[in-house]
Amino acid sequence: MQGRIFIMTILKILEFPDPKLRIKAVPVEIIDDALQIIIDNMFETMYAAPGIGLAATQVDIHRRFLIADISAEKNEPYVLINPKITKKNGLEVTEEGCLSVPGYFDSVERADSICVSYLDRQGNQQEEEMTGLLAVCVQHEIDHLEGKLFVDYLSEAKRQKVRKKLHKSRKLQSDSSIML
Question: Which residues have C-beta within 8 Å of that of residue 64, sequence separation ≥ 6?
């Protein structure tokens, strides 16, 4: 990227029930400068939201990669390209939220410990055991790459409640907008 200047951009995050969130991501074939710019823009978007994880699917890019940073200082970024969970252990129930389902949180059961195989940002093969919040976050984001949302783990009644709440919130936002 020598000699090239680019401006970081905050990307639009798709919101439930947008059907694009259901598209299954395809594997990344080439790790190039264009992908690096998208990754940088995704980090800016995630930090601004604010969130701890973001899958490419959530920003309408249907390729198999995600980013995460669970650190309080926002200085431990993870980039997982073509991630695959190879092992799961234990169960834990955590309160989850999602940048694609703003303002809604609910309990979801996930593995407490996972082993993930992926390519890092430079294209190097990695295999890593993840536990606790990082494990939950990565499972949540991999679900996005599969076209699945955390609300899919909830009852239909709760999903309807989420749809109504988001619809009402969007309507209030558009009603309060002033057209000039």
Answer: 25, 26, 27, 28, 56, 81, 82, 83, 145
> What gap in Å lies between CA 116 and CA 157, rounded to an integer?
33
**Residue 80 confidence (pLDDT) above 80:** yes
Quick one: CA torsion of 112, 41, 83, 26, rounded to 10 degrees? 130
What pLDDT does residue 178 have? 46
Question: What are 24's two structure tokens?
Answer: 């299954």
Q: What is the pLDDT, as a whole number, of residue 176?
A: 54
CA gap 171, 162 in Å, rounded = 14
> Residue 141 catalytic?
yes
- Which token pair is 117? 């195989």
Q: What is the pTM of this model?
A: 0.90
State mean pLDDT over 31-48: 97
Average pLDDT for 87-108: 95
What are the backbone dihedrals phi and psi of residue 4, each rounded to the nearest 5 degrees, phi first? -105, 135
Q: What is the largest CA-CA distance in the chain?
A: 55
Tokens of 30: 């080439």
Distance CA 13, CA 53 (A): 12
Which one of the listed residues 44, 92, 129, 141 is annotated catalytic?
141
